[in-house]
């Protein structure tokens, strides 16, 4: 999530079964923005800054299933190359 450099960055948690849990996140500078990178995909996030609270819901979470190491995109083709000695 991108924020103006003059704004404070909120703390972020995930909401699971009515409780908030810490998620791994980091801050990066990208162009004119300070970017909050959240290291997890989850159905619900909670952002807190002082007394302000915002809930975010990922309505697409869990709708597309792909096996580990694969993709759901038909535009991606996996090509395996033999090991070079």
Biggest sheet, strands in spatial order? 3-2-6-7
Poorly predicted segments: none
Distance between the termini: 43 Å
Average pLDDT score: 88
Oligomer state equals single chain
Short description:
With 85 residues, the chain is mostly beta strands. It is built from no helices and 7 strands. It has strands at residues 2-3, 11-16, 19-22, 25-30, 33-38, 44-49, 52-57.
Description:
By secondary structure, the protein is mainly β. It has a domain at 2-57. The chain contains no helices and seven strands. It has strands at 2-3, 11-16, 19-22, 25-30, 33-38, 44-49, 52-57. The strands form two sheets. Strands 3-2-6-7 form a four-stranded antiparallel sheet, with no helix packed on it. Strand 2 and strand 3 (19-22) form a beta hairpin. This is VirB9. InterPro entries: VirB9/CagX/TrbG_C_sf.
């Amino acid at each position: 999530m991108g924020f103006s450099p003059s704004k404070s960055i909120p703390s972020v948690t995930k909401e699971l079964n009515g409780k908030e849990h810490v998620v791994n996140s980091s801050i990066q500078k990208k162009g004119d923005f300070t970017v909050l990178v959240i290291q997890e995909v989850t159905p619900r996030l909670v952002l807190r800054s002082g007394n302000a609270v915002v809930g975010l819901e990922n309505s697409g979470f869990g709708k597309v299933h792909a096996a580990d190491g694969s993709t759901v995109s038909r535009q991606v083709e996996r090509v395996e190359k033999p090991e070079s000695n």
